[in-house]
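Standup notes, protein team

Yesterday: finished cleaning the Sulfitobacter porphyrae set.
Today: Peptidase S74 domain-containing protein structure.
Blockers: none.

Input for Peptidase S74 domain-containing protein:
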Amino acid sequence: MTGTLVVNNIDMNVPDYVFAEDYALRPLAEVRAFIDANSHLPEVPSEAEIRADGVDMTAMQMALLKKVEELTLYTLDQEQTISDLKGEVSRLSAVEARLAQIEALLIAQAE
């Protein structure tokens, strides 16, 4: 495969901006829809684009860094959701145990 390799490109846009409060992280459903429709990640060049235009390694590295940083945000969000759900399961387990005690008392009174 032939292509273009860009070296020493100083035009870098380091994607730490994804950690800003106002950054609009795509919903995962939207990412899935994009992948289903295009067979590559949003904002990452497709194989056809790379074959046609080559690879700007700086741009590619920054695109990949952005995706890693976004994945970190998705993971942190999922971790919070898991933690919230564990708390809810704990609460529901306690309610279930109390309900079982009440049912046992009601059965004992009915006998």
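Follow-up from PR in the comments: The longest helix spans residues 57-110.
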